[in-house]
Design goal:
Blueprint (H helix, E strand, L loop, with lengths): L1 H37 L2 H8 L1 E6 L7 E2 L5 E2 L1 H13 L2 E6 L5 H6 L5 E7 L2 H6 E3 L4 E3 L1 E6 L3 H6 L5 E5 L3 H8 L7 E5 L2 H10 L4 E5 H7 L9 E4 L6 E8 L4 H14 L2 H8 L10
Parallel strand pairs: 1-4, 1-5, 9-10, 9-11
Antiparallel strand pairs: 2-3, 5-13, 6-13, 7-13, 8-11, 8-12
Helix pairs in contact: 3-10, 3-11
Length: 276
């Protein structure tokens, strides 16, 4: 009798343990599902009803026109994507050197402002399909074009901190004997050359082509194209974000219906539009 009772108790304990184990698995699965849902960037953005877009002032990508309105290729591109996504674009001017921290802290939801795609950035962020080509160029006063094309030794060179121009200044032998300083933005770099604070600015071709020369605010500046490697622009989201695939699909739609080509043409960027 004692043996029977012992066996019955043992069986009951085994059934209870199995039940607890099954319940534990259910709880774990529910927690994992809840975590996955909570980590969905797409759900987070749609629940907020806005996409917070990080940018800096780069003409013709994001800049303020004479009426005080934020305009530009990236501005209209982002607005068109957000409309299809069903959210409102909310533009936040950021310090480009802190862009990754702003993104991770969710102060912004994406970096959409002439972001050069690099292997390092692809490791740390989720980046969209490329849509524009670019390269780094030098901007100098017209009177110095010939001399500075040959050498910048001993000259004051500036580029935006954290930019492709910054990387070039620190890595290319052409700038090895220059006095290099990083600055807050590409716009600042241009103003420094204009004022004489700097001799040379390293900026994006996309910006230089529309910002310097006859008919611009920097009419006495010219660009020097030294044939640096081609770059590609992409939109950066948080690592593992499910928004990237959704935005890529929308970009395909905007290419197919001609919207993206129309925006590029409006801002003189048709010749460097990749997605067409």
């Amino acid at each position: 009798m004692k043996k029977f009772l012992a066996l019955t108790a043992a069986a009951a304990l085994m059934i209870a343990a199995a039940g607890c184990s099954q319940g534990g698995n259910d709880t774990a699965q529910s927690t994992e599902q809840a975590t996955a849902q909570a980590e969905s960037d797409l759900a987070y953005i749609k629940d907020n009803g806005v996409m917070k877009i990080g940018y800096t002032v780069i003409d013709p990508l994001n800049y303020t026109d004479d009426s005080g309105e934020l305009v530009g290729f990236e501005t209209e591109f982002a607005t068109a994507v957000c409309e299809k996504l069903g959210v409102t674009p909310e533009f936040h001017e950021i310090d480009w050197n802190s862009k990754e921290m702003e993104l991770e802290a969710k102060n912004i939801d994406c970096i959409w402002n002439g972001l050069t795609i690099t292997p390092e950035r692809e490791e740390n962020m989720s980046i969209s399909t490329p849509y524009l080509e670019n390269r780094q160029v030098l901007v100098v006063k017209a009177e110095n074009e010939a001399a500075y094309s040959e050498s910048v030794d001993g000259l004051n060179v500036v580029a935006e901190a954290g930019s492709a121009g910054d990387e070039l200044a620190l890595s290319d032998e052409f700038f090895a004997n220059a006095n290099y300083t990083d600055v807050q933005s590409q716009a600042t770099a241009l103003m420094d050359v204009e004022s004489g604070t700097a001799d040379v600015a390293i900026i994006d071709y996309v910006m230089a082509a529309s910002s310097v020369g006859d008919g611009t605010d920097f009419s006495d500046l010219v660009l020097i194209d030294k044939g640096y490697d081609s770059e590609q622009y992409g939109i950066a989201f948080r690592k593992g974000s499910d928004v990237t695939a959704e935005v890529d699909a929308i970009i395909t739609e905007l290419v197919s219906d001609g919207t993206l080509a129309s925006i590029a043409d409006k801002y003189g960027l048709s010749d460097i539009l990749i997605a067409q």
